[in-house]
Write a structure and sequence with these properties.
With 231 residues, the chain is α+β, with helices and mostly antiparallel strands. It is built from 2 helices and 13 strands, in the order αβββββββββββββα. It folds into 2 domains: 30 residues; 164 residues, no CATH class. Helix content is 15%, strand content 42%. The strands form 3 sheets. Strands 1, 5, 6, 8, 10, 11 and 12 form a 7-stranded antiparallel beta sheet that branches. A hairpin with a 2-residue loop joins β10 and β11. The two termini are 59 Å apart.
Length: 231
């Protein structure tokens, strides 16, 4: 009696079945990676820039709402004081200062608010201080104005401020000129802030991606990334 020969399974059939299952797994892994990536990705960082042109002479001030939510984030004041006592002695002084409400602060050093140059980073590594910070100051008894903001063009005030309980960074661009010890003129030409919380901003930068947007892709080098055509 002849034995029935078993059908021979061709290598091509085995290969086709294996690759089919592998492709299915790769596609599933890729879809899962996309879902995880979508959940893990933070909101896109964006710089919101507001151009303006406002001149602050003596006795003038401007309230700045960096993120346009109807709440002033800081005030730039150009103040002039002149007082005389009952004994006939008089004194006068002029001061340009940044006034910060709540927990908002500006970059500062021993001379007061810092007049930062374009390209400087503004973020967690800087020293910040709130309340009222001098930018320039002069008195009748002196012959010159002191502070970081004396006769500067297009310098930047670094700002840290609160939006909904989260910290954001921004800048305010000003040029300041003095005449004698008692005349200070400030010209505000623009301001900006970073929409993504706790993300540094570059002084003078008005648009474009930030470091926070240059994220490492968590799917790189995985089976899911290969299925999506990444290397």
């Amino acid at each position: 009696m002849k034995k029935c020969a078993k059908p021979v399974r061709k290598d091509d059939d085995l290969s086709a079945g294996f690759h089919g299952r592998l492709n299915a797994y790769a596609l599933a892994a890729g879809a899962a990676s996309i879902s995880v990536l979508a959940l893990a990705q933070p909101s896109s960082a964006e710089i919101i820039y507001t151009p303006t042109h406002q001149v602050l002479n003596q006795y003038q001030s401007v309230h700045l709402d960096l993120n346009h939510d109807g709440i002033a984030d800081l005030t730039i004041q150009n103040k002039y004081h002149h007082n005389c006592t009952s004994f006939g002695s008089c004194f006068a002084f002029a001061t340009l200062q940044a006034v910060l409400p709540g927990s908002n602060e500006v970059v500062y050093n021993a001379y007061g608010a810092v007049a930062m140059k374009a390209g400087a980073g503004i973020g967690v590594r800087d020293a910040f201080k709130g309340g009222s910070e001098r930018m320039a100051f002069g008195a009748r008894s002196g012959s010159h104005v002191s502070g970081s903001w004396v006769n500067v063009t297009n310098r930047y005030l670094g700002v840290k401020f609160d939006i909904g309980g989260e910290t954001h960074y921004g800048w305010v661009r000003l040029s300041v000129q003095t005449q004698g010890a008692l005349t200070i003129t400030a010209t505000l030409t623009g301001y900006a802030y970073e929409t993504l919380a706790n993300t540094p901003i570059t002084a003078g930068k008005t648009q474009g991606p930030t470091n926070a947007e240059q994220q490492t892709d968590p799917t790189a080098g995985t089976l899911g990334s290969l299925a999506l055509g990444r290397k």
